[in-house]
Amino acid sequence: MNRLLFILLTTLSTSVSAQSLVSWDTFAQVTFHKQYSETFGFEVNVKPPEFAPKLLAYQGKEILVKGYVIPVDVELGMYMVSANPFANCFFCGNAGPETVVEIFPSSKLPRFSTDQIVTFKGILQINKEGEMNAVPYQMFQAKVVK
To answer: Can you tell me the mean pLDDT for 66-81?
Structure first.
């Protein structure tokens, strides 16, 4: 009986604590519907994005994401993690918004240098509404994984 209890508890603790490293290829499984806007002078989202079921399965789950750090506001500790170095991220290069995850830490993060490669652990939230200026992926309760 003790052996069965040990196996059950070990299995439960492993499944509860396991996180998945979500690849940038998985984050790319989204379709944006854009149309040129005369008002803004560039393409804007005209309806919410469509996310692949595999990607939606991570919604609200604790995940790991590894990428290049982009300091948004170092004084406030606001960062994003990107599939690409800063010069090639969607702010400056030709990549899309699906190549970054906005980081909302559980506590103050250390200072990072631009393009430092870091792995974060936190709860993934997917922005299904697709507001024009919103990043599609956010990580809450984020912590640095050593």
So the answer is: 88
